Amino acid sequence: MAKHEHVRVAVIGSGFGGIGAAVRLRREGITDFVVLERADSVGGAWRDNSYPGCACDVPSHLYSFSFAPNPDWPRTFSGQRHIRAYLEHVTDTFGIRPHLRLNHEMLRAEWDAEALRWEIETSGGTFSAEVLISAAGPLSDPQIPDIPGLADFPGKVFHSARWDHDYDLRGKRVAMVGTGASAIQIVPEIQREVGRLTLFQRTPPWVMPRMDRSISGAERWLHRTLPATATLRRGLLWGIRELQVGAFTKHPNELGLVEKLAKANIARSIKDPELRAKLTPSYRIGCKRILLSNTYYPALAQPNVDVVASGLREVRGSTVIAADGTETEVDAIVFGTGFHVTDIPIASRVVGAEGHTLAESWKDGVKVLRGATAGGFPNLMMIIGPNTGLGNSSMILMIESQLNYMADYLRQIDILGGRTALAVRPSAVNAWNRKVQSRMERTVWKAGGCNSWYLDANGRNTTLWPGTTAEFRRETRQVDLSEYEVIRAPRPAPAPKPEPAPKSARTSRKKETAK
Asked: Structurally, what CATH architecture does the domain formed by 150-205+252-335 represent?
């Protein structure tokens, strides 16, 4: 076990949120920090998700930091390899390597109310920090449903975010469970090589064409030579998506035209009316994330693919059984069943001022202020926290807004001086969440007629932001100290004054001095 290390700031995670936080700390003149990463390299979700076909559904020039533009994106929608390489490049360019503590999984973090600091236990050593930044992200821990008999399945089982590249799928009978963003990228890639592919679909997604292409050498030269052109490109991409927000958050019926286009996309590729019916959603488009693919529907129409319009219910030996009773013999099961988003595991490892975990404090529902701070957890901040997700734009925009808030949070602590902590007031948390949830009621995510991973067990959308990225930027530009209680370390008691010497002794000392 490594020796104990004390720092001003400890950051958990090295994906876009963690690396962004590290860069911002250095730009603010703060170098006394560490980035705790459980894996052996940076990258977060873009390191973990290396499945065939993995790519981003946000345009490349918008899916990058504004302070680290990349003029050399090879495609309009970049793949996993290039995004991961970009994060490695940012890590090197901004001098983050010395701050990394790789293979340091955060096991427990506990607030020390007397010392006003976080005591952190990791798999590689112990740390203490005045401020803890959780940038673990909601797409960190894969979720595999509890399927009876799965433990006894004799074949291969893995999640899309833990792809087994040593397992050869060629000629195999494969069950793909789930139809989310990962699945629609995986299916076309493996359909060409497997013997038979059975897709278990509980709810069909809406899928629109993916307007992807190679970015020409001339475009890249122009962006390198005239950086303002890349800034303009990014601005146009951002503006188009900002204009779309109202349809998602205020007027879901305006999405009807988009829905017609999506139905036409199905009809172009799926000629079989029975299969087309299976693949046509019954909920308003946008209620779940709209997915982008030119190859998903054509792959499902191939003769070696079966679509089971039902979830996986049970596994008996090598037989997988759907909820509708369909039985299929398979050699491998691949789960594309998402992540622990509304029940993030790291919440059970963070212990606050009152001795309970973040998960325990959220037992009646997740609540934070501005996606960043939780009641009872002083000097804890979250990057990509609750209600900061987006349904149609780039999360990097939201991350950078939260980095602004983080920077001002640290400035306020400096201004207050001494050993100081900020504890968000419960009244501020409640007021913020009432406003967010009130606005959420008229969004397509609540009124669109679907049950998505955006919703928690109580049906509350604690994942997405019901507004524009510009509005969120305004809401997180600076810390409002009226929303926080300032906690100061108790001053040490003054040393007792020495008792005056007896009069005879004072007289004696005076005589000695005179001599």
From this structure: 3-Layer(bba) Sandwich (3.50)
Rounded to a whole number of angstroms, the distance between the first and last alpha carbons of the chain is 64
Distance between CA atoms of residues 462 and 374, nearest Å: 14
Topology match between the domains 4-141+341-488 and 150-205+252-335: yes
Reference 322, options 141, 142, 145, 143; nearest CA is: 145
Q: Which of 353, 368, 373, 347 is nearest to 463 (CA)?
A: 368
| String of DSSP letters for 384-453 | S-TT-B-SSS-HHHHHHHHHHHHHHHHHHHHHH-SSEEEEE-HHHHHHHHHHHHHHHTTSHHHHSS---T
The distance from CA 7 to its chain's CA centroid, rounded to whole angstroms, is: 24
Report how far residue 404's alpha carbon sits from residue 82's, in angstroms, rounded to the nearest whole number.
27
Q: Compute the distance between CA of residue 387 and CA of residue 435 in angstroms, rounded to an integer.
A: 12
Cβ neighbourhood burial of 109 (10 Å; 0-12, 13-18, 19+): buried
Collapsing DSSP states into helix, strand and coil, what is residue 157? strand
Q: Residue ranges of the domains in the chain?
A: 4-141+341-488, 150-205+252-335
Confidence bin at 137 (pLDDT 50/70/90): confident
* Long-range contacts, stretch 86-90, CB < 8 angstroms, 24+ apart: 87/14, 87/15, 87/16, 87/19, 87/42, 87/43, 87/44, 87/46, 88/41, 88/42, 88/43, 90/19, 90/23, 90/65
Euclidean distance between CA atoms 87 and 46, whole angstroms: 9
User: Per-residue pLDDT tens for 440-472?
Assistant: 999 999 999 999 989 998 899 999 999 999 999
CATH of 4-141+341-488, one of 3.30.70.790, 3.50.50.60, 3.90.550.10, 2.60.40.1120: 3.50.50.60
Reduced to 3 states (helix: H, G, I; strand: E, B; else coil), residue 264 is: helix
pLDDT in tens, 289-330: 999 999 999 999 999 999 999 999 999 999 999 999 999 999
Distances in Å between the Cα of 143 and the Cα atoms of 63, 167, 340 are 25, 21, 6
Helix 80-93, helix 16-27: angle, nearest 10: 20
- Which amino acid makes up residue 129? A
Report how far Cα 432 is from the mean position of its chain's Cα atoms: 21
